[in-house]
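Bit of a strange request maybe. I'm writing a small parser for structure token strings and I need a real example to test against, not something I typed by hand. Could someone generate the tokens for this chain?
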Amino acid sequence: MKNRKRRISSVLVALVCLVVTTLTMAQKKAAEKTPSQPGALKRKPPLVEVVHAKVRDLTRDLQITGEVVANRSVAVAATKEGPITYCPWREGDRVGAGEKLVEIEREIHQAEVRTARAALAVARARLADLRAGARPEEIARAEAAVQKWQATLDEARKTYQRQAELSEKDFTSRQSVDQASERVSVAKAELAAAEQNLRMLKAGPTATEIAVQEAAVEEAAARVALAEAHLAECVIAAPFDAVVTAVHVRAGDLAVPRAPLVEMYAPDSLVIRFSVPERFSAGLRQGMKLEALLDAFPRQTFPGEVVRMYPLLEANMRTRTVEATLQTEAALMPHQFARLTLHLDTVKNAVTVSADAVLETPEGAHIVFVVEENKTVRRKVEIGIEQDRMVQVTDGLLPGERVVVTGNEMLKNGAPVRIAGGGGNQSRQAGGAERPGAFPGGAGERKPSASRGTPNAPESGR
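Reply from user aminoacidic:
Good idea to test on real output. This should exercise your parser:
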């Protein structure tokens, strides 16, 4: 047992010696390969690509989709029931405002109109006769009646006088005197009535009589208007210039109240309606410009402008409905699909760089690397809007300064660099075997800038 332990110990010692010897020889070989002078193998500065900051106009756009709709579209319906006698229209026909679309036959309403018109004519004739006053013949007849009763009264008085004298002498009875007195009273009453009638004929109708007859005329006219309105409901006319989109009946069909007969829309009321997300809704205004692409007209862009913004947000989607019209002629139809580019903001004379030049730090700040005398200067910048991958720099950069756009992922402030292509304005071509951004002895992973996907980048949404 003791001999076995000794053998194991000897083997372990031998292995340790072997390992130590191997490591010592490896260190000697490495030392022989290391040059005696420091800096004999210097690392080359990284190769970068730069561009000059430029001044240009930028526009912040919103990519959205919309639909062509008609602001004036109706489904014409009937208010009367009856057989249809006129409806020649088909889909695609154009009709003018006031043009007859459908006619329903209703003889009862025609008879009501004729009756009402006759009653109105009678009332008007009576009013005209009343206003004209008494005719000369009527006045002459009334005067003759007065004269007649005046003569009758005179004769009755004479008779009564004779009967009274005879009665005093007992030549006649008291009854004869009473009868003569009664005839005098009757003659007086008739004479008074005749005189009153004559005065009325000469004076003409009173204001009350004329007013009553005028009211009768107005009542008759109202009955005519009511009958004509019932009859007019049997003829349905186009409310505006329109294009027929659907016809649900033909001549001979039975019209039913409130059932749609013909559908149509006004071509001049076509607009593009779309929805804007809530975060952009407050900045909308009439007259904002946009471009529209329609699937019906490929490879054509139509300029347009905003003409209406709804005063509230859609409750479920939290979007604001907007309407726009095109500024060039286009054969639009309802429900066409439109792809829109809405210009939200425009900045004049903005200092801009490529979006590749802007990096975001872990703290959320934005930086660029400016090349000065072949060394990098780390600059903190403030950015604005972005268009076509060109970012507005509102602070921290001057026009014309050279900014690193490729190879800036692992740069540090003050680091020497080599500029691809000799440092021209746009050095994006391959200038040799070395790739911009490659570091001798290693490579870094590029960190995307906040400007690529920040709220300042072009938005899209329905």
